[in-house]
Amino acid sequence: MKRPLQGHYPPISTVGEKAKAFVPNPLPPKPPIEWSPELLGAFDAALVALGRLDGASAMLPSTPLFLYIYVRKEAVLSSMIEGTQSSLSDLLLYEIAQDPGVPLADVREVSNYVAALDHGLKRLTGGFPLSLRLIREMHGILLAEGRGQHADPGEFRRSQNWIGGTRPGNAYFVPPPAENVLECLGDLEKFLHDMPQATPPLLKAALAHVQFETIHPFLDGNGRLGRLLITLILCERKVLREPLLYLSLYFKEHRQHYYNLLNGVRTTGDWEAWLMFFAEAVAATATQGVESINKLAKTVFEDADRIAGLGRAAPSAAHVHIALQERPIVTASWLVEKTGLTVATVNKALVNLEKIGIVRQLNDGKRNRLFAYGQYMDILNAGIR
Predict the structure, then answer these.
(1) Backbone CA torsion sign across 300, 62, 333, 381
(2) Domains of the chain listed by start with CATH number
(3) Does the predicted model carry a pTM greater than 0.85?
(4) Could you report the per-residue pLDDT of 87-126, keeping only the tens digit for each?
């Protein structure tokens, strides 16, 4: 459905030239969303897929252990969209061994993302509302160190920014002037709190994501926080019990179409096209999540059976196997600390696990050895490229 321009263009003067910024209208869209049978069907399919994803988490041998890694995969993918080169292995190596061989600036950005998400989810679990204050807190953590630490972490911008191009005059998009940011954010916060009317969670997540990206309230980190906002809304509203839905891979794979749809909402008011894309993204991503959970659960159970066949060596190998599900890249010294087993017992367990193809050594030599839970990592790395 085509609507009038979904905002207005105040003139701005910055960096020595005049341009026009875009100030969006408050949510919800006017006129209201036109729910065609196709769009309704897409949202129904997305909700069914979310329900399956939520239920699939019960199949995991340990949901917290899976989430530990799954969240880190999302952090890598979301940061890749912003240009970082860090891999999932880089992040895990950094966390387990402070490995100097990884790209330090990139891996710190990804690590900050994990910390910001953890903070947001803990605050919501503790009863703190999804609010501008929480978003600022998360932003402060996201940009605490690394390349974004000079971009006012935790503070809404007080100067003009733009997307694409070298200046506002040739930019792809120019967000609201700084003096309009707080008013726009205030309207968005009201919408998140069901004012002026209640909005179903999945629809709320879809609309709020576009609005946040349009306001672009920070000097840096807007894309990552805008994607996190989707997950936070679904967790706060109990659509998901665990933070298992992340759309970064889908957005990355359809990047240009994604940008075109955001711009289409602003200029032609075609919210329906965006909502169709969003529903398809949710359905596809949730289905992939279920497949990953099934593969990981199958791998863990099959490997546990293989370990049981080790005879007297099975108990210590099983103990190490459980630890590997939490950290699929480890050092032998970390395993000693984590399991409470002796150095000799851990080393023997690793030898046995390597013999039956469950772990592989990542580096040469006998000191500071690194091991990976091979098939587990292969499943997690799917889609990261």
Answers:
(1) positive
(2) 7-291 (1.10.3290.10), 309-380 (1.10.10.10)
(3) yes
(4) 777 777 777 765 555 556 677 788 888 889 999 999 999 9
